[in-house]
Design brief:
Layout: H1 31-47, H2 66-75, H3 85-111, H4 126-150, H5 154-170
Helix pairs in contact: 2-4, 3-4
Length: 181
């Protein structure tokens, strides 16, 4: 019995999880979609194989690495459209909202606490710094899940970013604007 009347892959019910269509790849199980599904499966399997360590930080961040954080964040992920473009949209929109909450807290330090542009952020009241740090953590959670939606680990994202910056630095293009500088 096929698992989905709309899918023509012919997989049985117990093979449902490996169907490319179920994973959001619109196809009739052609070679490219099967390769994409297999790559996604390998990434998910790699993310799920990290071991939990004990310790003050590692209790919540699986192994202290970026990928460990991503695994821990993913374990708490409850949002609409996971595994679809809608899930990516949701993460992106919520990330923008969290960025707004962070900048709101920074702005309140300018307005209410008399912070000046030349002041050290470390001199802000501890409560204000912690509130900002928590907002940064919320942003990191959405970044981790958006990266997962795109099929990347946080370590891959970080590596890609550093490689891009090093390339710009070598070419003397750190300053300026535009993605392709």
């Amino acid at each position: 019995m096929s698992h989905d009347r709309g899918c023509r892959c012919g997989r049985e019910q117990d093979e449902y999880r490996s169907c490319p269509k179920r994973r959001g790849i619109r196809s009739n199980c052609n070679k490219e979609s099967l390769i994409a599904a297999w790559d996604l499966h390998k990434q998910e399997k790699a993310m799920n194989t990290a071991k939990i360590h004990s310790g003050p930080i590692q209790q919540t961040v699986v192994d202290g690495s970026l990928n460990g954080y991503q695994i821990a964040a993913s374990a708490t992920a409850i949002y609409p459209g996971q595994g679809t473009f809608f899930g990516l949209c949701y993460c992106g929109l919520k990330l923008a909202g969290e960025a707004g909450e962070f900048t709101d807290k920074v702005g309140k330090q300018l307005r209410d606490a008399g912070a000046q542009p030349g002041d050290s952020p470390k001199e802000l009241p501890r409560v204000a710094r912690e509130a900002m740090a928590l907002e940064l953590g919320d942003q990191l959670w959405y970044i981790a899940n958006a990266a997962k939606e795109l099929g990347y680990t946080l370590e891959q994202i970080a590596t890609m970013n550093i490689q891009k910056l090093l390339d710009r630095q070598q070419r003397g293009m750190l300053s300026g604007s535009g993605d392709k500088r």
